[in-house]
């Protein structure tokens, strides 16, 4: 009788510990793969991050012009848009490869009140773009008004002081990128 009870006890504890050990192993494996995917996602985003810099703009007296942009980041910048405070018009470029310069098509910011009336605060020139994963980055340049003889104003961008706002990516999105 003792042999049957002992074997039953050994079987019960052995199977419980075996199943518990298997469950623990599966949980560790699952959380480990999630952590690895998260780190891979961070690394892939870092490798694909473009950095667009506004180098110059050429504007005519009627507030039409083009912008020269340079991608000095590690990845290709896609869907590049240049906008200005108070204007509905946007200059667009499809993409700029790494270490390349491109010029936007002609854009008119003449509809912005910036050129006609004095402003209390500086306006902003906004350059937004995406990396290959669709993550959006935004660079803003402060633009001050420079008076003209006719009472109107010209743009005076602070080229050397861009403000970069990097996206805050969720762990879920980073894991998805890390698994792809």
* Main β-sheet description: 6 strands, antiparallel
In total, the number of strands is 10
First-to-last CA distance: 59 Å
Question: Based on CA inertia axes, which overall geometry fits?
Answer: rod-shaped
Quickly count the domains: 1
Counting DSSP H or I runs of 4 or more residues, the number of helices is: 2
Mean pLDDT: 82
Strand content: 35-45%
Structural class designation: alpha+beta
Poorly predicted residue ranges:
none
| Helix share, percent | 25-40%
Give me the strand/helix succession.
HEEEEEEEEEEH
Q: Tell me the radius of gyration.
A: 28 Å
Give a brief outline of the structure.
The chain is α+β, with helices and mostly antiparallel strands and 180 residues long. It has helices at residues 2-48, 171-179; strands spanning 52-59, 64-71, 77-84, 91-96, 100-103, 107-108, 123-130, 136-147, 153-157, 163-165.
Would you kindly provide a written description of the structure presented here, covering whatever features stand out?
This protein is α+β, with helices and mostly antiparallel strands. It has one domain (1-180). The protein is 31% helix and 36% strand. Strands 3, 4, 7, 8, 9 and 10 form a six-stranded antiparallel sheet that branches. Strands 1, 2, 5 and 6 form a four-stranded antiparallel sheet that branches. Helix 1 (2-48) packs across helix 2. The longest helix is centred in the first third of the chain and has 47 residues, at 2-48. It starts with a helix and ends with a helix.
